[in-house]
Each structure stands twice: as C-alpha cells, then as structure tokens.
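User: Round two. Same drill as before: sequence, then structure, for each protein.

Assistant: Same drill it is. First protein:
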Amino acid sequence: MNKLNKYDSGWILAETWLSALEEAARDFHGSRPRSFCERAYRHATENYLRILENDYAITAKRMHSIRDAIEEYIRVGVLGGLFQDSSQFELREINPNRIEILVHQCPYRKTCERLMQEGSTLQDLTCARIGCFSAATHFLAGIDCNYEVTQIHETGCKGFIERR
C-alpha cells in the first residue's frame, strides 16, 4: 500500500469535487451541461488567478490574443503549482482565432473515459482543463471562446479553443 502525500491528496480532492460538480450538472441539465460547466470554469479560473495575485503576488498579465492568454495562464499555473511544467501542453495556432491544444497527463482523463463508456460522445464532454483555458482567454484577453474536445488519448486529451 502506498502512502498518500499532500500533493496527490490535493489532486484527489480536486478530481472528486470536479467530478461531483459535473455529475450534478448532468443530473440537472442532461447529457449536455456545457453552459453550466463553462460558467463554473470561468468562476474557478477567475478565483484561482485572483487568489494567486492577492495571496501569493503571482500576477497574470492581460493579453491581446487567444494564444498569448493561454500561454500566460500556463505560465501562472506553473508558478502556482496547478501544472508541473509547460511541457504538459502543446499549442498549435491554426489561425489567430483558433488554437489546438494537446494536454499530456491530464488529471481529468479518467472522468472523460468513464463518461465515454457510459455513452457520452466527444462533443458531450465538458473538459475542465481545456474549459479553463477557454475561461482564461475571457479573463486575460477579453475574448469569448468556445472549446471542444476532439480526442481522448492514452495519457490526456486534445481539443481546440475558438473565438465565438
């Protein structure tokens, strides 16, 4: 039996609450609770960035593009311990209004896999990781975006963020 460390217990707690939030959203909104989850991701992202700034002097800079906002959120997320390092993500700019994101070692992958096994489609998935990147573009660049998961792979996921 492995001893549970504080880092892992924090992720277990986060995954537990995120799964519960999304399950409750599905209970009330059926198989497509996207608007509810998007609102939750916006609140979570804004609260996280404010806590980092107010309590830890880690400030996210305001940006002018989708890609720059995502990169800034990743930078701040690494400093704040949300991400291990920026190599967990690959960004590919399709055009200035659409960014493709490959997420390695996504902590929420198991939840997505379970939902797919229960009959959800990729379009039904509400991805906390990519959803919060979308929320960050709204908060840091004032750009309202849609997001979609396009693939679940062996360690993470792939999707895109696109200007509405």
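Second protein:
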Amino acid sequence: MENNTQTKPSLIMVIALMTLVNGIFNIIWGIAIIVGTVGLSLLCFPVPLFPIVLGGFEIAYAIKLLATPPQPAQPSQAIAIWEIVAIFVGNVFSLIVGILALIFYNDVTVRDYFAQLNGTQTPPPTPAAPVPALPVDPTPEPPAPAPVEPETPEKPKRRPRKVA
C-alpha cells in the first residue's frame, strides 16, 4: 500500500474550495430562479435546471479534489467552461470562478500535481549523447570569390534633333 504524504499545492485547495462554494451557490441560484419565476418556470424549465445540475457536478468534483488520501482526478476544464457559460442564467460569481479555475489549471505546480496524482509524470529529459567533435583542418579555407554582378548595357545616347 502506497503512503502518499505529499501535501496538496495551495492552488489545488483554492480550486477545490472555489468549485465547492460555487456548486452550492449554483444549486441555490437554480432554486431561486424556480421560486422567482413560479409561472414561467414551467415554460423555461431547462433554465433553472442548468445551474442545479452544474452545481451537482461541481460539488462532486470538489469533494474528489479535497479527498484524503487524494483520488486520481484530471483538471476539469469542462466544468470551468460551463461555469463561464452560467453567465447566461445571470450568475456572475460562476463566471469569475470559471475564469480563475482555467487560469489556475495552467499553473506549473497544478499541472505537475495532477500528472503525479494520475501516474503520468513524465520523466525528466535525458541529456543527449555528446556529439564527437569533427577533426579540425589546420589549413584555413581560401576566401570565397566575390560574386560578380552582371553588367547592364548602357542606354544608347540620343542625338539632338536638327531643327529645319
């Protein structure tokens, strides 16, 4: 049994907590849309359903990131993009969380953490084998001849006209 004593990078914790809070907020937001538009909610049922479903996915993903010991997980750029899309149901907070999550996923420490967590850590590059030096000829090379420019023929000179 492998003992993983590595601590999570702070950005992973920030992503997890932002996603968890945003998931809870999205569920509340979806319920608020249903309650606020009692008559219209039957006509626009998919609109409040979107933040509720997204909130469920966000909470599940955040719990996976916060688990101890860590569970294998990939950076969920899809959830971050759907958080940005939530602006269409009026959720500005979700837009901000989605943008920050995408920015944090591109951080080197976050990428390395996910790679190590999933066992896809790439080994450090091996140095290339030294290339043997070519023997140096002690005689210098003669200078290359200067390029010769082609001569352009001169235009014939005009003779002055005779005035009659």
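Residues 1-5 have pLDDT under 50 and may be disordered.

User: Perfect.
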